[in-house]
Write a structure and sequence with these properties.
It is built from 2 helices and 8 strands, in the order ββββαββαββ. It is mostly beta strands and about 140 residues long. The radius of gyration is 19 Å and the shape is globular.
């Protein structure tokens, strides 16, 4: 059986960090992941996925991210159940094994300071050439992958 999840998205709010009685760090957050297709109104919907990260990784994640940060995560889906108003409720979340910070420290620091952040949108098809540093314009349809 395979239970692997890879997601790229933005943090919906600042990450919450708490410690167990044994001193193990636990951080949890919601990741907004935009769908690859548009809805009937021509807009892209997002899914909001609950995620948890443990230990030193949790502490690092809290220190280097904030609301709006673009991150990539890998992990497994875990399901838990609990009683609410006499009904059994099931909730699923991603247990994060590893993560990648997909924005620079400068952008994260600007977000924390409440400054406006501008990043190149995915529709800005401008890339820097590896050789001489000149900008080239490439449409997504021209790429071989």
């Amino acid at each position: 059986m395979i239970n692997r999840v890879t997601l790229v998205g933005r943090l919906v709010r600042d990450v919450e960090l708490k410690y167990t009685l044994g001193g193990t760090a636990r951080a949890w957050f919601n990741l907004a992941v935009t769908r690859n297709f548009k809805n009937a109104n021509g807009e892209r919907d997002s899914d909001f996925i609950e995620c948890t990260v443990w230990g030193k990784s949790a502490e690092s994640f809290v220190n280097f991210t904030c609301k709006g940060s673009l991150v990539g995560i890998e992990g497994q889906i875990r399901t838990r159940s609990y009683e609410k108003d006499g009904q059994k409720v099931y909730a699923s979340a991603v247990s994060v094994d590893s993560f990648a910070l997909l924005e620079s420290k400068a952008i994260t620091d600007a977000r924390r300071a409440g400054q406006p952040v501008t990043t190149a949108g995915k529709d800005d098809n401008v890339f820097v050439a590896a050789g001489n540093g000149e900008n080239i314009d490439i449409a997504d349809d021209d790429l071989p992958f």
